[in-house]
């Protein structure tokens, strides 16, 4: 998919490439490609269509291209691809907290840091770890 941002670098066209996978525990990504096919941004995530949950693993925009709304566009594209999902993020930096707070206000979607994952997103190792830890918890 391609979208044109007017005002950013003279209306430069960016292509959003989405890599897909059939396994929820595998990371997917949306890559922002500038003319010349070089990556200027990336949003990595996991999504579980069965549980309608997702986790944003990281979002990166090249320093030269920051503060132009590219991260915002990548995240809005993610939400459009997976509507009505509940989202979490990995641990957030100070800059990340500001970004996700602004996006939560704008999209009416929460992005809590380190929220719980569904069993599908944990993967085989995560499910095993969860079961082992649960066995030590008092009932």
Features:
32% helix; 139 residues; alpha+beta; 6 strands
Structure overview:
Strand 1 and strand 2 form a beta hairpin. Mean pLDDT is 77; it is low at 1-13. With 139 residues, this protein is of the alpha+beta class. It is 32% helix and 29% strand. The termini are far apart. It is globular and about 55 Å long. It has a six-stranded mixed beta sheet with strand order 1-2-3-4-5-6, covered by helices on one side.
Poorly predicted parts: 1-13
What profile does the largest beta sheet have?
6 strands, mixed
Output the strand order for the largest sheet: 1-2-3-4-5-6
Radius of gyration: 17 Å
- The class by helix and strand makeup works out as alpha+beta
Chain-wise SSE layout:
Blueprint: E1 2-4, E2 13-19, E3 28-34, E4 38-48, E5 53-61, H1 70-81, E6 86-89, H2 94-107, H3 119-136
Parallel strand pairs: 5-6
Antiparallel strand pairs: 1-2, 2-3, 3-4, 4-5
Compose a concise summary of this entry.
Helix content is 32%, strand content 29%.
């Amino acid at each position: 998919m391609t979208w044109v941002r007017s005002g950013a670098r003279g209306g430069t066209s960016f292509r959003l490439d989405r890599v897909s996978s059939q396994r929820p525990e595998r990371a997917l990504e949306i890559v922002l490609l500038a003319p010349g096919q070089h990556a200027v941004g990336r949003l990595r995530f996991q999504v579980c269509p069965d549980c309608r949950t997702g986790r944003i693993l990281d979002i990166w925009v090249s320093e030269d291209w920051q503060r132009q709304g590219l991260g915002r566009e990548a995240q809005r594209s993610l939400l459009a691809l997976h509507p009505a999902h509940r989202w979490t993020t990995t641990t957030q930096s100070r800059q990340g907290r500001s970004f996700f707070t602004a996006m939560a206000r704008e999209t009416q979607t929460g992005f809590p840091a380190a929220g719980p994952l569904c069993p599908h997103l944990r993967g085989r190792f995560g499910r095993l770890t969860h079961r082992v830890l649960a066995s030590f918890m008092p009932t």
